[in-house]
Structure to design on (383 residues):
């Protein structure tokens, strides 16, 4: 179920030490061959990710090693149980559809002791997945077609999981996209002013407080019985999708850490937030941040199509609020993290979280200003 409690300030994050002995940790996994290379990989804000290159009898094979962020995910064993259940389930479904199960969902490489993770001497949890060869991910969509296809992929993902036994899933982050609970937590963060930054963020705080309705929308729709709980991805940033390098077609949805019961509008919204924006999430010049309505339309068509008729009429109607709500939530989350002293997201410079807050605020405004056009877009996409 969707819990009420949420706080991102779980503790200071630790960074990977450059002298980290990857060899020692990878030896505990059931990987044939010899480790040749290990290098940081990807742009995730949460886990530490390393690309491993192995030499197995003269042929090169790649894997992805990740240290699960224990401050974000309090029960990594439960997270891995979810991931095992979901990937096994998806592999069966993909095979039934005539797809390639080894390529179209992640493959967990178990540890030599049979578990799906290894705990090191510091109590850190590590996991390995097979690298999906000949794929690439994008930070922002480059063409409308890319984004249409992204929509079909995330919609299809949700539709494949529509008969997954949701009650067996752990909530890896309680209340993850319960925007109302996040709003409540935000009030507390402002009140506490742990990092002494409230004074410099009056405008941003006011922006969040003045849009309280956005915080309440999804949970209220659910509580009124207007929208169902589904098994959703919950982190549908465009960079969580791998495309085939040559064919430029979506291959595999990645980052399954937050697959949990949630709402269709949230998955729709998070993809719009990142993929329909004309700039990166941390673009310092907010004038460059716009919502590209053509991209919005392409994604909407793809997503509704990918869901394969499983979305109820009311769910389709709530999609625009999903985009607005999740973008608002992301502004709130980045701002809360800035106010708490940057305890959750990885940052590259001191005001990084504030810069991110500003891009999300700009997008919220863009979505608000174009609300009428967006309603029309959704109505047309649903035809
Ligand atoms: C985090 O894992 P990554 O970097 O794709 C975050 C998302 C945010 C996103 C913002 C578990 O995603 O919820 O939308 O950063 N994941 C978690 O870029 O908090
Ligand atoms: Mg993630």
């Amino acid at each position: 179920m969707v819990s009420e409690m949420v706080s991102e300030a779980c503790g200071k994050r630790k960074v990977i030490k450059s002298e980290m002995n990857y060899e020692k940790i990878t030896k505990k996994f059931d990987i044939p061959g010899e480790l040749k290379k290990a290098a940081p990989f990807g742009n995730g804000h949460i886990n530490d990710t390393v690309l491993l290159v192995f030499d197995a009898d003269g042929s090169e094979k790649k894997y992805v090693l990740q240290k699960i962020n224990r401050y974000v995910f309090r029960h990594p064993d439960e997270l891995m149980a979810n991931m095992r259940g979901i990937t096994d389930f998806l592999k069966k479904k993909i095979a039934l559809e005539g797809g390639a199960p080894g390529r179209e969902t992640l493959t967990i490489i178990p540890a030599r002791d049979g578990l799906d993770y290894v705990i090191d001497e510091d109590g850190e949890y590590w996991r390995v997945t097979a690298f999906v060869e000949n794929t690439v991910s994008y930070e922002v969509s480059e063409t409308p077609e890319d984004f249409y296809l992204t929509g079909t992929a995330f919609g299809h993902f949700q539709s494949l999981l529509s008969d997954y036994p949701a009650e067996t899933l752990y909530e890896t982050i309680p209340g993850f996209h319960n925007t109302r609970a996040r709003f409540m937590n935000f009030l507390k963060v402002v009140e506490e002013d742990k990092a002494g930054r409230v004074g410099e963020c009056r405008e941003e705080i006011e922006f969040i407080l003045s849009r309280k309705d956005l915080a309440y929308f999804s949970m209220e729709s659910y509580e009124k019985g207007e929208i169902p709980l589904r098994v959703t991805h919950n982190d549908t940033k465009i960079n969580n999708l791998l495309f085939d390098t040559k064919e430029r077609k979506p291959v595999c949805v990645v980052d399954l850490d937050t697959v949990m019961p949630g709402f269709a509008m949230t998955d729709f919204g998070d993809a719009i937030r990142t993929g329909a924006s004309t700039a990166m999430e941390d673009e310092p010049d907010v004038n460059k941040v716009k919502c590209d309505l053509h991209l919005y339309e392409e994604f909407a068509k793809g997503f509704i199509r990918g869901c394969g008729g499983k979305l109820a009429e009311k769910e389709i109607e709530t999609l625009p609020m999903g985009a607005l709500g999740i973008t608002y939530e992301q502004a709130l989350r980045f701002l809360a993290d800035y106010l708490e002293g940057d305890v959750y997201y990885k940052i590259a410079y001191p005001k990084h979280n504030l810069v991110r807050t500003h891009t999300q605020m700009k997008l919220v405004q863009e979505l608000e200003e174009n609300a009428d056009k967006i309603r029309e877009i959704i109505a047309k996409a649903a035809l």
Observations:
- The radius of gyration is 20 Å.
- The chain has a mean pLDDT of 94.
